[in-house]
Amino acid sequence: MAEPTNTPMPGSTPVPGNSPRSTSPVHPPIPSLTPGGRNVVIPSRSAPDSQTHPLPKPVVLHIGDPIKYNPETYEEFSSAFRVIRPSAAERERTEFVKALRERRWGEFDAIFRPFWGTGGEMGRWDAELVDLLPDSVKVFASAGAGFDWADTKLLGEKGIIYCNSGLAAAEAVADFAVAMVISTFRHLPWCIGAATLPFTLSKDSATDKDTSSSAQRIFQACHAQATPVSHTLRNHSLGLIGMGNIGQHLAAKLGCPAFGMKVHYHDVVRKSPALEAELGATYHDDLPSLLRASDCVVLCTPASTDGKPLVTAETLALFRQGSRFVNIARGSLVDEEALADALESGHVHAAALDVHAAEPRVNERLVGLAGLGGERPGRVMLTCHNAGGTVETHVGFEELSMRNIMAVLGGRQALTPVNMHWLKGR
After folding, report:
1. Residue 203 pLDDT > 70, yes or no?
2. Which of 71, 94, 244, 419 has CA 20 to 30 A from 326's CA?
3. Overall number of domains in the chain
4. Region class of 36: left (phi > 0), else alpha (psi between -120 and 50), else beta
5. Which residues, 6 or more positions from 356, have their beta carbon under 8 angstroms from its beta carbon?
6. Would you say residue 407 lies in a domain?
7. Could you read off the pLDDT of 327-345 as tens digits, one per residue?
8. CATH number assigned to the domain comprising residue 309
9. pLDDT for 151-169, tens place per residue?
């Protein structure tokens, strides 16, 4: 039976309160994980009490596809634990609930989801699923950064540490965000569309001569008209909402000496003076102060538990006239209609969004503002939740998920836990 497709992309990362915050550790930018886990300490296993009465191996429930990228780590992983991988049919919601109720997989100790493409067939990990988990479960480690599909509060209250893999995607997301920031200053959708799309759009409805003439006119118009509204990045202010791993990578890539932007940030927890000095970052203790100081605002913070957007008509009104906006966080954080209003009025000059409120649907007004016909100045770059999508990211997802389980079941601290504040003493 073919593996079913995954549940929809994650939407929000719960945090307490209404303010943006980063759940990432406080330290300078971290290099990407490498195959084989070179950047992660390997926890050792406790020896059995005796040769005649060895301790039973902990049981790991592996939901999703088999391992693809880290065979050496998986060899260690599968030697330390008894790994059970339910079939695709067993992972469908109804059957999965039935299997948990009847304890089909026994008293397992961990849940392992190494890929974002499979393993989510049972849908949201809500009270129905969490309450059915055996008390033996200590850790749930999954690929991906967002986890609105899992109630991490309930998991924590049940004594289960939830670990995400956002660390593995941080550099890929930051790289993509750099391109999006550049797009807002250099009007890349307009430039690309003017050079290519006139041929595609008119080839079936016009003669070759008409097509060529129209294409040349659009090309020349973009060449002349893009210049007065384009700017280099140096000495412009970059406002980061969130200074976790992604924010730190962005500050290092776009600040001095690279692109020379002036880095400003707001986070619930201020970073250390040493990190601020290293990144050349100026802290703002409230969001309005950051917005007023920024030429380009980048949203790189988790969403709040109430699901309300952070970027609204009210917050957009605080943006500098003609500023720019980039979202590589969560679509639910942005009121897209309010953003379209701000773009149409010119209060926000340009935007770039990799994530969308109703994925896989994209806001039609924002599509219109992308200007893909080549004739109009395209002021919005829209992509398909691609920022973290690299081979290296998925290598890291797989590796980090295994390492988290090995750490917790080995009696050590989890590497990337996100719900410790909900965890009962266990």
Report:
1. no
2. 419
3. 1
4. left
5. 331, 336, 362, 363, 382, 385
6. no
7. 999 999 999 999 999 999 9
8. 3.40.50.720
9. 999 999 999 999 999 899 9
